[in-house]
Amino acid sequence: MTPIVLVHGFLGGSAQWQGQVAALSDICNVVTVDLPGFGAMSDMSPIPSIGGMADWVLTQLTQRDIEQCHLLGHSMGGMVAQAMAVRAPSRIATLILYATGPLGTIPGRFETMAQSKARAHTDGPAATAKRIAAKWFAQGSQSPAYKLCADIACQASADAIRAGLDAMDGWSGEDHLPRLSHETLIIWGDLDRSYPWDQISRLWQDIPKASLAIVPRCGHAVHLENPPVFNMHVRDWLEGAR
């Protein structure tokens, strides 16, 4: 079966997908990547644009002999996934856009990009990583999965945090949505404080072949807050694409 490639978001890393690798590997090859500057690639120089990250992931797939894949992008990784689908549509079998949107400025986010940049400069990378990671969960830092996310987030350097925020802040995929021809699944937690409903609904309404799955009582990290339901949606999607 066609493999699925998982692209993490801002302050994320491949280690956050352990539950998905375990749940999906019996039906397809699950490929995870760490974007430069984050996670296991924290020693690499970060890429300060969404398009640059998309090109980097496409190159990684080529080096791994992956000609076509199902592509799942989370948060900032969902922007990367959209850019990849525009750049190399034939290499994407289907899209899963998870807790993401068409605007990098993310209107309605828990704080503006400018505020995040200012606080990152003032507070430093570790404090910034922990503070933002807590925003991803409906239960905040009390979530059982918070420590995992915070530990991964803390691997990012100050340069990576700055580059990631700059990359998102300067990006828009709005004009490309009607031209995304792939079957697309949109997954969203209804308590997400990073990407409000208007961002999700824009994807759902403007991508021609979009389906929507809303997971109740979850925030920005559905795959960690409610793994059984998240994995069920992804598994059903992959099995339906056979």
The rough form would be described as: globular
Q: Mind describing the biggest β-sheet?
A: 6 strands, parallel
Helix share, percent:
40-55%
Beta strand count: 6
Structure classification: alpha/beta
Work out the strand percent: 5-15%
Element-by-element helix/strand order: EHEHEHEHHHHEHEHH
Radius of gyration using CA atoms only: 16 Å
Mean pLDDT, to the nearest integer, reads: 97
The stretches of 5 or more residues where confidence is low (pLDDT under 50) are none
Give the number of helices.
10
Q: CA-to-CA gap between the ends?
A: 7 Å
What is the strand arrangement across the widest sheet?
2-1-3-4-5-6
Relevant terms:
242 residues, alpha/beta, 6-stranded parallel beta sheet, globular
Protein model, in words:
- With 242 residues, the protein is an alpha/beta fold.
- 43% of the residues lie in helices and 14% in strands.
- It contains ten helices and six strands.
- It has helices at residues 18-24, 50-63, 76-87, 113-123, 125-135, 146-153, 158-169, 197-206, 222-225, 227-240, and strands at residues 4-7, 30-33, 69-74, 92-98, 184-189, 210-215.
- It has a six-stranded parallel β-sheet with strand order 2-1-3-4-5-6, sandwiched between helices.
- α8 links the parallel β5 (184-189) and β6 (210-215).
- The longest helix is centred in the N-terminal third of the chain and has 14 residues, at 50-63.
- The model has no long low-confidence stretch (mean pLDDT 97).
